[in-house]
UniProtKB/TrEMBL annotation:
<dbReference type="Pfam" id="PF01225">
    <property type="entry name" value="Mur_ligase"/>
</dbReference>
<keyword id="KW-0132">Cell division</keyword>
<dbReference type="GO" id="GO:0005737">
    <property type="term" value="C:cytoplasm"/>
</dbReference>
<feature type="domain" description="Mur ligase N-terminal catalytic">
    <location>
        <begin position="15"/>
        <end position="60"/>
    </location>
</feature>
<dbReference type="InterPro" id="IPR013221">
    <property type="entry name" value="Mur_ligase_cen"/>
</dbReference>
<dbReference type="GO" id="GO:0051301">
    <property type="term" value="P:cell division"/>
</dbReference>
<dbReference type="InterPro" id="IPR000713">
    <property type="entry name" value="Mur_ligase_N"/>
</dbReference>
<comment type="pathway">
    <text>Cell wall biogenesis; peptidoglycan biosynthesis.</text>
</comment>
<dbReference type="GO" id="GO:0071555">
    <property type="term" value="P:cell wall organization"/>
</dbReference>
<keyword id="KW-0436">Ligase</keyword>
<dbReference type="GO" id="GO:0008766">
    <property type="term" value="F:UDP-N-acetylmuramoylalanyl-D-glutamyl-2,6-diaminopimelate-D-alanyl-D-alanine ligase activity"/>
</dbReference>
<keyword id="KW-0131">Cell cycle</keyword>
<keyword id="KW-0067">ATP-binding</keyword>
<comment type="function">
    <text>Involved in cell wall formation. Catalyzes the final step in the synthesis of UDP-N-acetylmuramoyl-pentapeptide, the precursor of murein.</text>
</comment>
<dbReference type="GO" id="GO:0047480">
    <property type="term" value="F:UDP-N-acetylmuramoyl-tripeptide-D-alanyl-D-alanine ligase activity"/>
</dbReference>
<protein>
    <recommendedName>
        <fullName>UDP-N-acetylmuramoyl-tripeptide--D-alanyl-D-alanine ligase</fullName>
        <ecNumber>6.3.2.10</ecNumber>
    </recommendedName>
</protein>
<dbReference type="InterPro" id="IPR051046">
    <property type="entry name" value="MurCDEF_CellWall_CoF430Synth"/>
</dbReference>
Length: 423
């Protein structure tokens, strides 16, 4: 079957499923493979559950009109997403960066949806599978598609750009994330900068942080750009405070967000700048920012049994961990308690980064500080440390804190949100 013919089939059955446990009626099942699974083995099951077609890449001896055999299922899914992106001709805004991608994406979506029909990456489906699935969620009615792109090695953003062909792009920042794959911060800059490379090569428009010298230096002579800054050199947006929620002003209008931490200021700025570029009124932009509430363990404020909890346990790297600690230090609150969980994917830098983070946390003199995980357990200090979450859980089951303000921060694999059940 040609790609064009497969796309015509997709237009008739416009739901894609890659998990045989989540089949919906009349979907097309793509039998992806992984290290521990082979979707080809579940093609028949998917059809019995209601899928209209199954796309597989293992030769079969039987003939079934509902089963489409291709050379490579993943490659076919990616090519189909690229084809559909061209077919629908929606405007595509791509964004990447070390920290804040998903929050920024949600803010941009909240703002632009006040005026346009938009689709955006669901959750963090931002990789070589998630991006084509996002592209396939575009409809002929879609005005703007907001596509988040993640990467943990070089050339990944470059490849995703070839699929999505963005008209606009934004990079949140360049931080110490996925050092195991990138090798260094310089590697991070090069990898995330692949979005700039694509946009510049194709003379597309770039949104950028005018207070970030890495971005301003790179884009100094590039004409197709729009920036924001706190110093009035670009579109002026001024930070007011974050105690605990970020407040800012733009064109003498104050915006009160539901986002914790000064580090979320630039995420808001990006959404405001993009809304301004697409000619939304300030009132609509304000509505979009103020109505957005973070979910999924991302900078959430939770009130529970007398505790005020800053839950930021979706992910962590040295940059985001440092910013979270600095913000927590600035909060006007008494009896501050901090739980820090291991940071992953740091490669040979892991020992150094965990030591530096624990030293920083000690210097801030919190009322209580707990380190959780194998990497933090190896740090050289006299802090209370637990090798595993289970060890911490045993302690929490027998301990009561007085009324406290608590920060919970760690990588996704640590799942530190489980602490909430134990307080």
């Amino acid at each position: 079957m040609t790609l064009e013919a497969l796309h015509q089939l997709f237009l008739e059955f416009p739901n894609i499923c890659t998990d045989s446990r989540k089949i919906t009626d009349n979907c097309i099942f793509f039998a992806l493979k992984g290290d521990n699974f082979n979707g080809n083995a579940y093609a028949e099951e998917a059809l019995k559950k209601g899928a209209s077609y199954a796309v597989v890449d293992e030769k079969r001896t039987d003939h079934n009109d509902q089963i489409i055999v291709v050379d490579d299922v993943l490659s076919t899914l990616q090519q189909l997403g690229q084809w559909h992106r061209d077919y629908c001709k929606a405007t595509v805004i791509a964004l990447t960066g070390s920290n804040g991608k998903t929050t920024t994406k949600e803010l941009i979506a909240s703002v632009l949806s006040r005026k346009f029909k938009i689709i955006a990456t669901k959750g963090n489906l931002n990789n070589h599978i998630g991006v084509p699935l996002t592209l396939l969620s575009i409809t002929p009615e879609t005005d703007i598609a907001i596509v988040e792109m993640g990467a943990n090695h070089l050339k990944e953003i470059e490849f995703l750009c070839k699929l999505a062909k963005p008209d606009y792009g934004y990079i949140t920042n360049f931080g110490k994330a996925h050092l195991e794959g990138f090798g260094s911060v310089e590697g991070v800059i090069k990898a995330k900068g692949e979005l700039y490379d694509y946009l510049i090569l194709n003379k597309k428009h770039i949104f950028f942080n005018g207070d970030d010298p890495i971005q301003t230096n790179r884009l100094h002579s590039y004409p197709h750009k729009s920036g924001y800054s706190d110093n009035k050199q670009y579109y002026p947006i001024t930070f007011l405070d974050a105690d605990p929620f970020v407040r800012l002003t733009v064109e003498n209008l104050t915006i009160q967000t539901q986002l914790v931490g000064r580090y979320n200021f630039t995420n808001c700025c990006a959404a405001i700048l993009i809304g301004h570029y697409f000619k939304l009124t300030l009132d609509l932009i304000k509505q979009g920012i103020e109505n957005y509430s973070p979910q999924n363990n991302r900078s959430q404020i939770i009130e529970k049994d007398g505790y005020q909890i800053v839950l930021d346990a979706y992910n962590a790297n040295p940059t985001s961990m440092k910013l979270a600690l600095e913000n927590f230090k600035e909060l006007k609150a008494s009896n501050k308690v901090v739980f820090l969980g291991d940071m992953f994917e740091l490669g040979s830098s892991s020992e150094k980064e965990h030591q530096e983070l624990s030293d920083l946390a000690i210097s801030m003199n919190f009322d209580a500080l707990f380190l959780v995980g194998e990497n933090f357990y190896k740090t050289k200090n006299s802090l209370t440390k637990y090798r595993s979450f289970d060890e911490l859980a045993q302690y929490l089951k027998t301990t009561k804190f007085k009324k406290s303000t608590i920060l919970i921060k760690g990588s996704r694999g640590m799942a530190l949100e489980r602490i909430l059940e134990l307080l």
